[in-house]
Amino acid sequence: MRTSLYTLVTREFTLQESLEMAVQAGFPAVDLRQGHNAEDTIHLSISISDAEAEAVRGLVEAAGLQVSGLTTYYHVGKTDPAEGQAELDGLRRGFALAGILGARFVRCSGPRLDFPGGYEAAREAFRRQVDTLAPEAQAAGVTLTIEQHGGTYFSSAGQILDMYRGVGNEYTGIVYDPGNCFSEGYERPWVQVEMLAKLIKAVHVKNYMTIVGEGSQETLPCEPRRLDEGLLDWGDIVSRLRAVGYDSYLTLEDFYGGFPSAQERLDWDAAYLNGLAAG
Q1: Which of 99, 185, 169 lies closest to 134, judged by CA?
Q2: pLDDT by residue (tens digit) across 20-55?
Q3: Each residue of 94-115: pLDDT tens digit?
Q4: Which DSSP symbol is given to 65?
C-alpha cells in the first residue's frame, strides 16, 4: 500500500503550498481536488485546459510527488436525461485530465437523496451510466471510483452492493470511506470490507467519535478525532483490506483540528499512515 494526501485537507492553501506541505510531511502522492463549479477553483478549475493540466503535472513532478487521483464532484445516477448526460460528459473530461496528470483514479459521487425519482429510478440510472462509463475509463487507462458518502444512495455497504450488482467492469469501483458512514449508513468496518472487497479501489482515511444527545432520524452526530483516537481502528481496517487483496492508496482526508498547525497535523498523519501502509 501507498499513502496520498487529498488536497481538500489543505483547501485553505494554494496548490503550490499544498504540494510543499505534502513533501514536508512525507507523502509520496497527492489526490488533486477539482472544484464544484466555475466559482470554485480549489485546487483545479472545472474548466482547466490541457495546457494548465500539463503545468500542474509539472509542479507535482518538480516537487517529487505523483498524482494518485483526480477528485471531481460529478454524480453518477442522475435520473434527468439532460442532467445525467452533463455529468457523464464532465467525467469523460475528467478521464482525459487524469491521463494528462498521470492519475490512476477519477472520483465522483453516487445518486443524491434529493431527486424526485426515488431509489429504483436512481439505481437504474446508476447502473446504466456506470455501464456506459466503465469501458471508457478502461480505454483511458483510469478507474472510475464512486465515494461512499452520506446524502446519497451510496452510504452503506448494502446500498453500494445493490447499486453495483451486475456491473462487472474492473475499471470501476468505490472509494471506501468508513468515516463517512458514521452519520449515515453505518455497518461494522470489517463487515463492510468483507462485503465490498474487490469493489474497493481507493480508501479515504479519517476518524470520528459520536456525540451524545444530538442528532435526528436523518443522520447521527459525530465529530472528527485524531486518526488513532476515534471509533475506527485503522490498524485492524488496514489488515482487513490487505486480507482481501487491497494494495492501493490510503488517502488522507483528516479534518481533526486538535493540532497547533495544519503542517503539524499532516506531519503526524503521514507518519501514522506510512506506518500502516508498510505493514
Answers
A1: 169
A2: 999 999 999 999 999 999 999 999 999 999 999 999
A3: 999 999 999 999 999 999 997 6
A4: -
Q: All domains of the chain, ordered by start, with CATH?
A: 2-278 (3.20.20.150)
Spatial distance between the Cα atoms of 145 and 270, rounded to a whole number of angstroms: 23
The letter for the amino acid at 186 is Y
Sequence-distant (≥ 6) Cβ neighbours of residue 139 within 8 angstroms: none
Q: Round to whole Å and give the CA distance between 230 and 250.
A: 17
pLDDT of 116 strictly over 80: no
Q: Which amino acid is at 270?
A: A
Q: How many angstroms separate the CA atoms of 235 and 279, rounded? A: 9
* Cβ-Cβ contacts under 8 Å for 238 (sequence gap 6 or more): 1, 250, 276, 277
Cell numbers linked to 8: 481538500
pTM over the 0.70 mark:
yes
